[in-house]
Amino acid sequence: MSFIEVVEGRSPGDTRRILEALPDWFGDPVAVDNYVSATEDSAYGSLLAVGTAGVVGIALTRRHFREAAELHLIAVDPTQRRSGVGRALVEQVVSALQTDGGTLLSVHTVGPSFEHEPYAQTRAFYRSVGFTPLEEHDGIDWSGPTLIMVRTLGTQ
Question: pLDDT by residue (tens digit) across 17-48?
């Protein structure tokens, strides 16, 4: 991995650029608009992965309870995929939550009953950073299956 620094910050323009460069995951313009709006919303925590070429990744979190948060969005510029950027973002989220009393992190993604290779890659990534599948339900985030995955944070 080239030098990447994960920092707190908001960049709606970079969020849109990265999401639009990932049409296999973010091909719905309305969804992209919603994520960009969330980037601007102070109800969401926002981390940026910044390299020498600028912002190459983003993570949005939403704290639902003191103990539990949701990884609402994670996206990495396609030129930086598989370089450790996503892992660095997740680990920074985990570290910040642990420091602030968090014990559980969840994420929603497209469930395995919807066969789509890009989301199979997504689920494999989440497993590689410590998430465990919990439940699959239809109609939560879209009309198809949503898989809820969780990661216990333990204590720091």
Answer: 999 999 999 999 999 999 999 999 999 999 99
Q: Distance between CA 134 and CA 121 in Å, rounded?
A: 18
pLDDT for 156? 44
Query: Which CATH superfamily groups domain 5-152?
Result: Gcn5-related N-acetyltransferase (GNAT) (3.40.630.30)
In sequence order, which residues have a C-beta less than 8 Å from that of residue 86 and are 6 or more positions away?
Answer: 57, 74, 76, 125, 129
Tell me if 14 sits within 8 A of 57, measured CB to CB. no
11 neighbors 27 (Cβ within 8 angstroms): no
* Residues 6 or more apart whose Cβ sits within 8 Å of residue 47: 6, 7, 8, 9, 58, 59, 60, 61, 89, 92, 93
Q: How many CA atoms lie within 13 A of 16 on its CB side?
A: 10
Measure CA of the first residue to CA of the last residue in the chain; give whole Å: 25
Q: Measuring CA to CA, which residue among 110, 119, 98 is closest to residue 142?
A: 110
pTM, full prediction? 0.93
